[in-house]
Design brief:
single chain; 66 residues; mainly alpha; 3 helices; 85% helix; elongated
Length: 66
C-alpha cells in the first residue's frame, strides 16, 4: 500500500508541476478532460494517496521514539 501511495503521489506531483510550468494537465489529456469520469477517479486516487502519505510522518516518529 505504501509503494502504491508513493507512486500515485509522484504522479500527482509531476502532473501539478506540468500544470504550473506549462499549463498542461497530463491526467486530463490522457483521460479525456478534467471532468471525465476516469480523470476524476485518478484525481481521487492521487488525493487518497497523498493523505495516506501523511501517515509516513507519524510512523517515522514512532520508530525513532522506540
Amino acid at each position: 500500500m505504501d509503494m502504491i501511495a508513493l507512486i500515485l503521489s509522484i504522479v500527482g506531483s509531476l502532473n501539478w508541476g506540468l500544470v504550473a510550468l506549462f499549463r498542461f494537465d497530463l491526467v486530463a489529456w490522457l483521460f479525456g478532460g478534467q471532468t471525465a469520469l476516469l480523470s476524476r477517479i485518478v484525481y481521487g486516487l492521487v488525493a487518497a494517496a497523498g493523505i495516506w502519505c501523511v501517515t509516513f510522518l507519524f510512523r517515522r516518529n514512532a520508530v525513532t521514539d522506540e
